[in-house]
Amino acid sequence: MDISIGKYKVFQTGTVISLPNESVIFDFQALRFIFTFIDTEDKIQKIETKIDGRTSLELKFYNFNNVLGTGNTTPLPLGTLNGAELLLQFRIFSLGDGSNSNTGKTIHYTWLLNQVSKAEEPPKTSADE
After folding, report:
1. 3-30: per-residue pLDDT in tens?
2. What secondary structure does DSSP assign to the chain, as a single string?
3. Would 129 be classed as within a structural domain?
4. Number of domains comprising the chain
5. 63 located within any domain
6. Which domain holds residue 37?
């Protein structure tokens, strides 16, 4: 089965239920993505990234404790896979009462590929050469 969403091809999609205080690791081909959940006293929700070499990226999700879920509204570009742009859509739900990350998370994810054809590439300008 092939699934597309607009111009994107769905590469992988699914749900993971994490363990309390454990990172979730996605490995495919030579790429590794690590989802780490962190609580802070300020309760400000944000995402930070940490690159480890050319093939590993840690996404640090701060204060993702909403039992109703939190996610992105536009695909998040994270790299290239087989010549196509790799993007991520996600929804993260806190298990339990949402007061802390010790209860684990339910993570719905969709990895997307955007294969840019030569016809879709912008024309080159003299500044590009």
Report:
1. 999 999 999 999 999 998 899 999 988 8
2. ---EETTEEEEEEEEEEPPTT--EEEEETTEEEEEEEE--TT---EEEEEEETTTEEEEEEES---TT-EE-SS-EEEEEETTEEEEEEEEEEESTTSS-GGG-EEEEEEEEEE---TTTSPPP-TTT-
3. no
4. 1
5. yes
6. 4-114
